[in-house]
Amino acid sequence: MGMTVDETRCLGCAACAAICPEDALTLVRGTPEFSEDCTECSWCAKVCPVGAIKREG
Amino acid sequence: MTERYDVVVVGAGPCGSRAALEAAERGCDVLVLEKGAEIGVPKQCAEGISHQGLEDAGIEPRDEWISQEIESFTIFAPNGEELHVIPPDGGYVLERKLFDKWLAAEAAKAGAEIRVNSPVIDVVKEEGRVKGVVVDTPSGPEVVEAEVVIAADGIESRVARAAGLAEPLDPDDMCTCAQYEMVGVDLEDEHSLYFFVDLEWFPGGYFWIFPKSGGRANVGLGIRGTESDPGRAKEILDRAIEEHPVISELVGEAKVLELNVGGVPVSGPIERTYDDGIMVVGDAARQVNPLTGGGLHSGMVCARIAGEVAAEAVEEGDASASVLKRYEKEWRKELKRYDFLKEVCETLRKMDNEALNRLAEALDDETLMAIVSGKGRKKALMRLAKELKSDPSSVSKFGSLLIKYVMKTGW
Ligand SMILES: Cc1cc2nc3c(=O)[nH]c(=O)nc-3n(C[C@H](O)[C@H](O)[C@H](O)COP(=O)(O)OP(=O)(O)OC[C@H]3O[C@@H](n4cnc5c(N)ncnc54)[C@H](O)[C@@H]3O)c2cc1C
Ligand code: SF4
Ligand code: SF4
């Protein structure tokens, strides 16, 4: 369960962080990290231009 | 000992550097904190800006960061109909990597200090007033105090959020973009910006080819966040280059030099861009042209104003909201012209491809040229509005919008 990032695909553009409705996603050293506020709504994954975020489980 | 500056700018993008330059030139002690290791990298931009844009930002054009001179727009409707417009004012495609670095260097020459590899992770607040920022350093979080914090941290706008000035963007208010810089691009006119509007191919956005020097070009697209799926922007980019009837002709044989991605906020600016001890500028404040998604012109103009107001606040020894409010008052005046563009954008969004095709036909080169250049504009607008109004589709909304605009502005 939970959201995961493919760090080799992610280009650090922050589009995902900009829309996260829970403010649960911050870029740490260029890649997304998810806080416990994440509801797994998957919006971040949806807007990612390169498809670097996935919902596991 | 805690460090202390008059002005701390977060982010060394064009808006952060422009604000830092202004404040430093006016005698402030300025520190710029940039999270990246290199200013100008990665590029998240198609690099277009008008002559007027640079002038309004108070920047003299320089050969070292201009890649291409632009004299016209070439716009393709969904049915392939081509409109060619020569606006009264031309523009440039920049080399943003060089431009961003040059602008930061200008700020440094004016006295600003710059630190890279220095992400800001929070603001420091005392009695509700912003007093500084927290920087993540190799030896742990460190506080830097400031009279005024200028948040220029781009679309993520973490600083504005920490200060309670920005909410997350609605996915429908963001365009998610993918772009290649390519070489071997064969354009008929390498001094023209190419736009492709097609709601089936590029829902809620458009595709662009912006030529650069040496046969290079920025080739990319944006679509609305609500129309996106994981990786969709890049998938459409690849497919358009392979299969789109016009685009594949122009860039099908070109080779990729770079992949650039990013989000563009098209919501219009945040409700309030200042508070005690803080101002928010550029993409962080969503000061972006709602029709084109361009943020260089508007953002740098606002940043210049923020730098000015910061210097006034430091000089007056009062950086409370009542002084920083001047910033918001000034920039709102500057960006007033975007209200109409927002309406145009919303009306365009309600159209389908068929309506867009009809619009392109009614908007022949001559009419479009008259509207853009101002010569015979009123007559052309009236003629167009009449033609569109007689059409019982959503195109008529565009007609009434134009009539309203003609009435309101007395063009
Ligand atoms: C694909 C694409 C094409 C575009 N094409 C055009 C175009 O042709 N013309 C145009 O005018 N506009 C264009 N834009 C928009 C334009 O790129 C932006 O409006 C512009 O870069 C905004 O400048 P800025 O300084 O506000 O933010 P940015 O350029 O995003 O700079 C923000 C800086 O802050 C840094 N930062 C972020 N968070 C922190 C932190 N916590 N601590 C420290 N530093 C931080 C970042 O690393 C970055 O360097 C385009 C955008 C995209 C995505
Ligand atoms: S949107 Fe995708 S590429 Fe951009 S920072 Fe988020 S995960 Fe990385
Ligand atoms: S899944 Fe939803 S809540 Fe979780 S980080 Fe992504 S956008 Fe935010």
What does this structure look like?
The complex is a heterodimer of chains A (about 55) and B (about 400). Chain A is an alpha+beta fold. Chain A has helices at about 15-20, 45; strands spanning about 1-5, 25-30, 30-35, 55. Chain A has a two-stranded antiparallel ribbon. A two-stranded antiparallel sheet of chain A has the order 2-3. The longest helix of chain A has 5 residues, at about 15-20. Chain A starts with a strand and ends with a strand. The relative contact order of chain A is 0.39. The model of chain A has no long low-confidence stretch (mean pLDDT about 95). In chain B, strand 5 and strand 6 (about 80-85) form a beta hairpin. Chain B folds into three domains: about 5-45 and about 95-170 and about 265-335, 3-Layer(bba) Sandwich (FAD/NAD(P)-binding domain); about 170-265, 2-Layer Sandwich (D-Amino Acid Oxidase, Chain A, domain 2); about 350-410, no CATH class. With about 400 residues, chain B is of the alpha/beta class. In chain B, strands 1, 2, 8, 9, 10, 11, 17 and 18 form an eight-stranded mixed beta sheet that branches. The radius of gyration of chain B is 22 Å and the shape is globular. In chain B, about 35% of the residues lie in helices and about 25% in strands. Chain B starts with a strand and ends with a helix. The interface of A and B includes residues 12 and 18 of A. The structure holds flavin-adenine dinucleotide and iron/sulfur cluster (2 copies). One iron/sulfur cluster (SF4) binds near residues 22 and 34 of chain A.
